[in-house]
């Protein structure tokens, strides 16, 4: 196979050299051009026709976000955002992923070595081979009418690559009185702070970062804060959440498997969904939940950016039903309406 053609866009020549050195060490990748401004990037896209781009979040003249918007309108292509961990950098990176960027990687800090870039090559390869997201549905205002149905189950959702856009679309279908909902999305801690802040005004339910000991409530969506913790259910009696400090589970922290497996004692009161993402985090937990009485839903292959986590969950028998992204929110709400004692067949 021919190497994938990469365009590097960053206003720092030092950062461009660093990214080039990492990517060119991977035989699957070939850097065909570099650009220091949005104008140079536009010309490089037209001249070199790259398969994938790394794009700096914060650039002079025209921001990476504005350039991404124009790129996705006129020549959609896979993009990996490269961000500093400033508040603005995190905010813009999350918005970029909602607009269609496949993933985001943190820039290394001075003195921290290259740990943040340890997966850069794999992320770029994955992005180049990923499906680009389809057109976004209209945003749903907070005034969306309350559903007449009664929810009997807790909603648990896990996602990874492509999950920012997917989760937004799912929650746009949720009413203000949605079932208590927990979400684990693979992202660095500062990005998760920005993600929760971005979602709250865009959807009808309240969206918050989870805190240790928080109580599950109708109309409240809690997102795993990441960092050193996993987001788990605390038990069938108090029905709260715990932020569990521990090593990565299934290669991730926060981990979808950790959240799903913590819900086993109350599986008959759970509806679990697994969204686009690479790898297998959440697959074993979903299979165990379904076996124990949970209702389960997987995002369809056709609508996934990366059909990894849902695919493995299906192979392990964890997916009861499949749904395209545009109807995923409606379908998981329907599962939450099913009586808590009902078992899937």
From TrEMBL:
The active site is at 160, 186, 281. Phosphorylated by CheA. Phosphorylation of the N-terminal regulatory domain activates the methylesterase activity. GO terms for molecular function: phosphorelay response regulator activity; protein-glutamate methylesterase activity; protein-glutamine glutaminase activity. The modification 4-aspartylphosphate is found at residue 56. CDD domains: CheB_Rec, REC_CheB-like. Residues 5-122 form the Response regulatory domain. The keyword Protein transport does not apply. Keywords: Chemotaxis, Cytoplasm, Hydrolase, Phosphoprotein. Residues 145-333 form the CheB-type methylesterase domain. It catalyses: [protein]-L-glutamate 5-O-methyl ester + H2O = L-glutamyl-[protein] + methanol + H(+); L-glutaminyl-[protein] + H2O = L-glutamyl-[protein] + NH4(+). Its EC number is 3.1.1.61, 3.5.1.44. It holds the Pfam family Response_reg. It is found in: Cytoplasm. One of its GO terms (biological process) is chemotaxis. The keyword Phosphoprotein applies. One of its GO terms (cellular component) is cytoplasm. Involved in chemotaxis. Part of a chemotaxis signal transduction system that modulates chemotaxis in response to various stimuli. Catalyzes the demethylation of specific methylglutamate residues introduced into the chemoreceptors (methyl-accepting chemotaxis proteins or MCP) by CheR. Also mediates the irreversible deamidation of specific glutamine residues to glutamic acid. Belongs to the CheB family. Contains a C-terminal catalytic domain, and an N-terminal region which modulates catalytic activity. This is Protein-glutamate methylesterase/protein-glutamine glutaminase. It comes from Celeribacter ethanolicus.
């Amino acid at each position: 196979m021919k190497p994938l053609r990469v365009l590097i866009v960053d206003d720092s020549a030092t950062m461009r050299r660093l990214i080039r050195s990492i990517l060119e060490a991977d035989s699957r990748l070939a850097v065909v051009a570099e650009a220091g401004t949005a104008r140079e990037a536009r010309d490089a896209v037209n001249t070199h026709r790259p398969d994938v781009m790394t794009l700096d979040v914060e650039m002079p003249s025209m921001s990476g976000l504005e350039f991404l918007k124009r790129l996705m309108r006129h020549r959609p292509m896979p993009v990996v955002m490269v961000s500093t961990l400033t508040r603005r950098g995190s905010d813009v990176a999350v918005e970029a992923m909602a607009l269609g960027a496949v993933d985001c990687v943190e820039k290394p800090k001075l003195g921290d070595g290259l740990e943040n870039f340890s997966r850069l090559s794999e992320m770029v390869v994955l992005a180049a081979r990923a499906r680009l997201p389809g057109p976004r549905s209209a945003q749903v205002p907070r005034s969306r009418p309350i559903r007449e149905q009664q929810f009997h189950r807790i909603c648990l959702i896990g996602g990874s690559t492509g999950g920012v856009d997917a989760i937004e679309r799912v929650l746009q279908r949720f009413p203000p009185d949605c079932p208590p909902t927990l979400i684990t999305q693979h992202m660095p801690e500062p990005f998760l702070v920005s993600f929760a802040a971005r979602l709250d005004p865009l959807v009808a339910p309240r969206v918050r970062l989870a805190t240790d000991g928080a109580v599950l409530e109708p109309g409240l969506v809690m997102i795993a804060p990441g960092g050193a913790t996993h987001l788990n259910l605390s038990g069938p009696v108090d029905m709260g959440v715990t932020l569990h400090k521990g090593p990565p589970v299934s290669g991730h922290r926060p981990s979808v498997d950790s959240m799903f497996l913590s819900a086993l004692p109350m599986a008959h009161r759970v509806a679990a969904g697994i969204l686009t993402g690479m790898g297998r985090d959440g697959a074993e937990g979903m299979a165990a939940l379904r076996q124990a009485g949970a209702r389960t839903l997987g995002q369809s292959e056709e609508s996934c950016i990366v059909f990894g986590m849902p695919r493995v969950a299906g192979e392990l028998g964890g997916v009861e039903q499949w749904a395209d992204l545009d109807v995923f929110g409606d379908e998981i709400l329907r599962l939450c309406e099913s009586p808590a004692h009902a078992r899937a067949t």
